[in-house]
Write a structure and sequence with these properties.
The chain is mainly α. It is built from 20 helices and three strands. The longest helix has 31 residues. The N and C termini lie far apart (80 Å). Bound molecules: zinc ion.
Length: 507
């Protein structure tokens, strides 16, 4: 059989496996948006069975044989071509997955499905003790998984690699430490000075959920999320998922006393969704039709949420529309007032609602704690105290309870360990990309004032979305921006904002 026939067989097999994966994604979407609590037990059985089927297909020995033949064929000559990147990434995935025993995969799938339900209840009841045994088992199995798939001396490396392929813990640690050193002086400026703007206008009890949804749909449509190929629903924890090449779902949650929470959450998830919708449909299920890494995915959500959505130009266009949707709110406010108000820096308890600066410290806290838990340097029983101590040390606040502390995120309950640092990488990548886009296209602020986002979107489609996973994230960033990872555009952007919001007003 020649290489082209082998490649055809391999990709047909992989696309079929992706079909099972997308069915699983639909079940997960349903679990978080629609499923009654009583459905949890049978759903975890379904998740277990599907995970087993997917794992068996992913570790089918024929894949090893096909790849062995293909790796020495002409198709693999250029590792960044469609065929070359497919062979490269499938080999990486196959080598990793085949080291994980089937019963571990099934056990984890069931545990993570149940874990989310246990977490939801524990969070609601502010009862960490009821979640602790499940969390302990989750980390125990994650340790087993990391040991089985070990790619270096560092256990955390193999989990991080699932989300940011090729990244090393030591490099990420260094990048985040440099970022933190750049952020600390900005937080001090915010602490010592009064902010401009009117933040209470964003927290008045006058934002009906239905109006929030209508306004969010207008904004997310205009920036480029395609509702013909997607939808917006409500969930306990906001997320974005793709069920197929033309079916992308985003979710949010509404707080009627807080305008920012759902609105910026929707821009964020729409950013993820636009990335998914911009991938090449004909490559669906294969690496070139798949997102590059979660750091790059997050760069897209953060770019639209913060670099676009919190810009002055954005509010020049959208404030009059917001005033129509929420009569009596934002009265007397100008676009500059709005810009100041949505860019306040305030150490807070909840990560997803944190400002652009302190958000990164929330991530660093989780990154440090999950490494300690994985390496057994910290016990699950001691986690709440360790969590509170880090909040006190890094953000100078202490959570009053576990609900707003260690129980706030869904990730660990769903087995997502090694995932958190990609959020901070995403912030760094977003600023690098935005800076390059502005220098290549000209400053986009003028376009934002006119409600025009298509130039920026097209640039992202050509440079990021259409490339899928042809390149790993470091190579992709180098190709687009000239640097592998560089926190200076993010620090420059945040310094500019801090000065705008916190410099004393001259009279
Ligand atoms: Zn995100």
């Amino acid at each position: 059989m020649d290489a082209n026939d082998t490649y055809e067989q391999l990709t047909r097999h992989v696309r079929k496996t992706k079909m099972l994966g997308s069915i699983n994604a639909l079940l997960e979407w349903d679990q978080q948006t629609m499923m009654p609590q009583t459905g949890a037990n049978y759903r975890s059985e379904q998740a277990k069975w599907l995970a087993g089927e997917i794992h068996q297909r992913e570790t089918d020995p024929r894949i090893g044989e096909w790849l062995q033949l293909l790796q020495t064929s002409e198709l693999a000559t250029d590792p960044s071509s469609d065929a070359g990147s497919t062979i490269r990434e499938l080999f990486h995935q196959y080598e990793k997955k085949r080291k994980i025993p089937l019963d571990l995969v099934q056990h984890q799938a069931m545990l993570h499905s149940r874990g989310q339900q246990v977490w939801i209840k524990a969070r609601k009841e502010n009862d960490y003790a009821s979640f602790a045994p499940t969390l302990k088992e989750i980390f125990h199995l994650k340790r087993e998984e990391a040991q089985a798939t070990s790619i270096s001396d560092c256990l955390y490396d193999s989990l991080l690699d699932d989300y940011e392929p090729g990244a090393k813990t030591a490099d990420v640690r260094q990048a985040l430490e440099q970022l933190r050193d750049g952020l600390v002086p900005l937080i001090a400026v915010a602490k010592e000075n009064q902010p401009r703007g009117n933040a209470t206008a964003l927290e008045s009890p006058r934002f009906p959920a239905s109006q929030q949804k209508a306004f969010a749909k207008i904004a997310t449509s205009l920036i480029g999320f395609d509702y013909e190929r997607g939808r917006l629903d409500t969930a306990a924890h906001p997320f974005c998922t793709e069920i197929g090449p033309d079916d992308c779902r985003i979710t949010t949650r509404y707080d009627e006393q807080n305008f920012s929470s759902a609105f910026f959450g929707c821009l964020h998830e729409a950013g993820h969704g636009m990335y998914e919708q911009g991938l090449r449909a004909e490559m669906y299920g294969l690496p070139p039709g798949r997102y590059c890494s979660l750091g790059i995915h997050e760069s897209q959500s953060r770019l639209w949420e913060n670099l676009v959505g919190r810009s002055k130009g954005f509010w020049t266009y959208f404030l009059p529309i917001a005033k129509q949707h929420f009569p009596g709110c934002f009265e007397g406010m100008s676009d500059v007032d709005m810009y100041w108000s949505v860019n306040r820096i305030r150490p807070s308890l909840i990560r997803v609602e944190a400002d652009e600066i302190t958000y990164n410290l929330h991530i660093i806290i989780r990154f440090e704690l999950e490494q300690a838990l994985l390496q057994d340097e910290l016990s699950v029983a001691d986690l709440p105290a360790a969590w509170n101590k880090k909040y006190s040390d890094y953000l100078d606040i202490t959570p009053p309870n576990d609900r707003d502390g260690v129980l706030q995120d869904i990730h660990w309950s769903a087995g997502l360990v090694g995932y958190f640092p990609t959020y901070a990488l995403g912030n760094i990548f977003a600023s690098m990309l935005f800076q390059t886009a502005n220098s290549e296209l000209g400053c986009q602020e003028g376009n934002f004032e006119k409600g025009r986002y298509s130039d920026l979107l097209k640039w992202l489609q050509n440079n990021v979305y259409q490339r899928g996973n042809q390149l790993r994230s470091d190579k992709l960033m180098k190709k687009i921006t000239g640097s592998v990872i560089d926190h200076s555009p993010l620090i420059k952007h945040l310094t500019h904002k801090t000065q705008a919001v916190y410099s004393p007003i001259e009279s």
